[in-house]
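Run: sequence + flavin-adenine dinucleotide -> complex structure.
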Amino acid sequence: MQLELWTPRVDPAFAAAVARTVAEVVAPAAEAIDRDDHYPKDVVRSLARAGYTAATFPKELGGGGRPFADLVAIFEEVAAASAATATSLITIFQAGETIHLFGSEALQRRYLPAIAEGLLCSFAMTEARGGSDVKKLDTHARREGDCWVLDGRKAFVTSASAAELFVILAETDKGVTAFAVPSDTPGATLHSPPSARTFGLRNGPHVDLVLEGARLPLDHLLGEEGKGIRAAATTLDHSRVLAAAIGCGIARAAFSGALAFADKRSVSGHYVIELQGIQWYLADLLAEIDAARLLTYEAARHLDAAASTHKLPRESEVRRRALLDIQRWSSSAKLVATRTAVSAALQAIQICGVRGCVETAPFGRYLRDAKTYEIAGGSSEILKNTLGEYLLAAVDGPG
Ligand SMILES: Cc1cc2nc3c(=O)[nH]c(=O)nc-3n(C[C@H](O)[C@H](O)[C@H](O)COP(=O)(O)OP(=O)(O)OC[C@H]3O[C@@H](n4cnc5c(N)ncnc54)[C@H](O)[C@@H]3O)c2cc1C
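>> structure
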């Protein structure tokens, strides 16, 4: 009897189509992307043609109009083959989602259809001094006539080596503000310091975006001036559910690899899978991955449920509750799924013995990608702080 380990949490026909596309387009390139640390441009453009870079954006803007759970299924499947490719997709989503939720109608019409057709994007918040805390930035924007003029340097920008559009945060007189910066903006250049290469999520070096008198049209400001942290936090709350899906994908891949090994390798007259000690490792992992997947799809359900509240004023009770709800579920999902990915990768190596440690096996890649994702896109500590704030709101403040 063949049992399905990873039951689809979306329409099974859609999940099967995604799995076929990933097997054909992503899996064959996975090892080389990681080994050579290059941006998988052709792979991402093929995935764009399949509708994966704009799946949740409105149909009238070139998107798929799909629920968030479908996007989670795409990210989970892509990451099971190549987390670096899924990371390439997530930066496109982050830029597109910020434009979708905060950009002017003209900007949405310009960039969302282009994203559906394969425009490559990055999302740049981090600077040399600010990673977890971006409330004060060294990148500045000032208004000059009919332009914004930007100066500063964004660091560790994923996908930047290939990006054609950046969504960034910069400080104006009114505070941190979000901008869309096309890569061909005069005064915008890329610099690759030695620290740009990470040991995990290797989709090309995470280079710096340097802005020296870069002039942008006024309408490239996203949302309200001085409200950029709010815009970025909203996008991150959404993309954390996809980061969780990437964690689930890595965990699944590590588990499946270890299970296949244990099923074939015999030791002292027993297959490894028959050893109870090994079964217990796998049993614990199966339960943890099931839990992480359920949590991630539940977070996607909360995102879809809150979609109708996006246009409500932020101060309204309904919107406030929806925002807290999304923060809670997206933080929990990323926290648990990335932690599960790390333990699945570690345990898989243990189960496979030396064959888990060799460079020709994918387990080292799983471990490097999983560990890196406990930091990127909101570290586990920051996620726990967010959950702590949720608890304070739940008890209506201390005392
Ligand atoms: C592979 C990778 C890709 C990345 N891609 C991007 C990108 O595309 N765009 C981008 O903008 N950034 C990117 N980053 C940067 C990432 O967002 C930051 O690494 C992350 O926000 C943490 O910031 P930091 O590394 O500067 O750590 P720091 O802020 O220096 O923190 C150091 C340590 O202290 C902990 N810490 C910080 N504040 C608190 C607190 N209040 N309470 C408890 N603990 C705390 C942190 O969790 C961490 O463990 C990427 C990072 C990685 C690893």
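>> summary
The domain at 228-394 is CATH 1.20.140.10 (Butyryl-CoA Dehydrogenase, subunit A; domain 3). The mean pLDDT is 96.
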